[in-house]
Amino acid sequence: MEYMILIHEGETAETPQPGSPGFETYMADWMAYNQKLIDGGNFIGAGRLQPSLTATTLKRSSGADQLIDGPFAETKEQLGGYYLVTAADLDEALSLAAAMPIDDVTLEVRPIAFRPEAL
Amino acid sequence: MTTPIAEAVTRLAHEQSGRVVALLAHRFSDLDLADEAVQDALLSASQWTTVPDNPAAWLYTVARNNAIDRLRRAAAERRRLRAAAPDLLAAGLDASGDTRSPGEDAEAEEEVAVDDDSGPGDEADEQVRLMLLCCHPALDRSAQVALTLRLVGGLTTAEIAAALLVPEATLAQRIVRAKRKIRDAGIPLSMPADLDGRIEVLLTVLYLVFNEGYLARGGRPGIRVDLVDEAIRLTRRARDVLPESAEVEGLLALELFTHARTGGRQTAAGELVLLADQDRTRWNLDLVAEANVVLADALQRLKPGPFQLQAVVSGSHSTARTAADTDWAMIAGAYRQLAVLAPSPIVSLNHAVAVSMADGARAGLAMLDAVDGLDEYYLLWAARGEMLERAGSRPEAIDALRRARALALNPAEQRHLDRRLAALGAPGDGAGDGGRGGGHDGGHADVSRAVDGRRDDA
Questions:
Q1: In angstroms, what CA-CA distances link A79 with A83, A97, B420?
Q2: Which of B186, B188, B190 sits opposite A111 (nearest CB)?
Q3: What pLDDT, on the 0 to 100 scale, is given for residue A11?
């Protein structure tokens, strides 16, 4: 089965920037995680999103479009990125999510119902 | 409709359907199919004119045949759709989204025929898988309870709804949603890597069912299914299929020790009786004896856990011939370990009370001072009041009991505190309505109540 792991996190948390102390370890952890997914045959895709202040929301109601400056919902935790993985079952998908090198985070694991390019 | 046949069918459902669902779900890798096949078989059973010699074997055979029939019908349906696909497409209709190749279907059908005679695998493992699936942590607690009673316990939706005091439609919806999540989210019917962690969830669910039944005892006349009996039955089965687990035995012992005291818990009028005041000749000594054996089995495994420790506490009460015989040092020791394994303010409170009984009121008071977060909990103040009284500080004892009285919500608790206040010469609001209390053993009553926690007499 295929699962999307949605990464919801507070946007105030500082992540190490290139050149700053700790950046090397930070990146090394993520690279190792990605490699683990690839080696295990789990990796399909992943992405990190720009902060929610860059979001534009298009809302359509009865055919009328309205643009809103900002994310779908102004909440403390925002969607910050995702992994798309293949896993035998929910238990494996949850263990992949749990291995992510990130703290103070909410990970939502959802099965993919249908994905055109997977056909 | 409690004819002998109807009773036999109900018994068959409760005792065997969980086992058969587990076997078929594993065999066909399809929980829904297994459940429906068993339900259909039980429906056929309700048409019996005589009960077969071996109802369990009958149920397995009929349910298995039902499952195979359903699979064959589904395969035939797919074939028909595929044959009709060109016409359907021409008519602008989608051929049901069926993307399988013809070869796959033939294979599936063959598998149905071939699998027919393969014997059951390790049956205990299959039952464990079903229990752990129903209690998967990705399911909501209320869904875990409903699924466990339905699929493992073989109760009908109507029976579960009545026992849990939930409308039947709500309960049915809960089960449908849980089954859908299991199927669509890919929750596996497999032995988990973290077996102990998953057993812990199963035990939490079973203990919740037990308490649901125990706390409601007597309050729901006319309910056919007794959740106390169901919880004990399911815990026994868990013990049988997980024979190495000390905590499963711990929970079974805890349930049996607690259940053994049922006869002394209430007056004829339905008033709850404090542990220390109960008529111990009304306790069920057979259950106590069985619980002692089960607990001994658990303890000799040397793998302590929260349920075993709670069983030690419950057992210390259930095996004491009189309240004064209670082994408070043993209880204090169990709470000391529980405070390490599963710390909580309630455990600390109970530990303090046990220490006050074993080592004296002053020792208990010192420990109570260290309990955090229970300032609004009446039992903390009731326990403090009783300890202060025993320590000879009557004015402070009265203050504490008044505070407990103000916080107590249950009328029976309020009456008890009023009696205690009156006995100390400080009438509360409802003074005079009970008039008893005080005297030789009054202090112990409240204390015992606190020790046995909210689950016994509260």
A1: 12, 15, 57
A2: B186
A3: 87
Confidence of residue B121 (pLDDT cuts 50, 70, 90): low
pLDDT digits (tens, 9 = 90+) for A88-103: 999 999 999 999 999 9
Average pLDDT in chain B? 85
B186 contacts in chain A (CB < 8 Å): 1, 3, 87-90, 93, 111
Query: What's the confidence (pLDDT) of residue A80?
Result: 94
Nearest to B421 by CA among B455, B458, B395: B395
Q: Does the CB of A119 have a partner CB in chain B at under 8 Å?
A: yes
Domains, chain A: 2-118 (3.30.70.1060)
- For chain A, which ranges sit under pLDDT 70? none
ipTM of the complex: 0.86
